[in-house]
Amino acid sequence: MSVIRFWKYEGTGNDFIMLDNRQQTLHLSREQIEKMCHRRFGIGADGLILIENDSQSDFRMVYFNSDGRESTFCGNGGRCAAAFARFLGLAGEEVRFSARDGMHTARFQASGVVRLQMRDVSDIQQHPAGWVLFTGSPHLVVETDAAEALDVKQEGSRIRYSEPYKAEGINVNFVKKGAEEILVRTYERGVEDETLSCGTGVTAAALLASRRGYASPVSVRTPGGRLSVEFSEKTPGNFSDVWLIGPAVQVFAGEYVLPQPQA
After folding, report:
1. Which of the residues 198, 202, 205, 244 is marked catalytic?
2. Which of the listed CATH numbers 3.10.310.10, 1.20.120.450, 3.40.33.10, 3.30.1330.30 matches domain 124-244?
3. What's the pLDDT at 71?
4. pLDDT at residue 237 tops 90
């Protein structure tokens, strides 16, 4: 029997299991990660994040969706990983870390707010269902006035498993425009359900909102809370200096009895 120490973080309701793997002692299978993330048979989370050593930065973030598969970047997870790194003593007022989509910088503000620098975005493609952007993960943004009443799991799943997205999957964001903010509800691939918030999805929706007259910073409401996105757009459709801003909170810590991999 193997017992491991874990920490649980959430960023606007998007929750993650955090593990300190700087000693490279954890070698988790997909089945083990999936069970840890299960909300009935495990700790329960939208994803799991390993903090590891990195020769080029303060740490390396390795992110897994709740289905146990390693995934691309997660914005809320990145903010939580930065907060966890600070808890571990790896960061002062700023931290730099690597992820699958490149290097990121995070800065800490009062009251647990974390500013995370996202990747530059220049490729925005129009599809029949909406607009596709890559903000560290692939996102489809669908504008609809029915976002509040929509069955996000049903409609998001329908799109995610349709062509041309079926093979690789895509995150689907349903966005409603408001006078002072936008509402974003997200179906996440790998979770295969609506999550209370999605950082890369919020970023995609906010950048697209600039085409609808919203100026930086764009205020975003999600079912799990509020975020904001700052950016520069020196030429139309070319976004740089993109920052995702919002809370990242440690909610509890404990020990977990690691299930043995199935033969």
Report:
1. 198
2. 3.10.310.10
3. 93
4. no
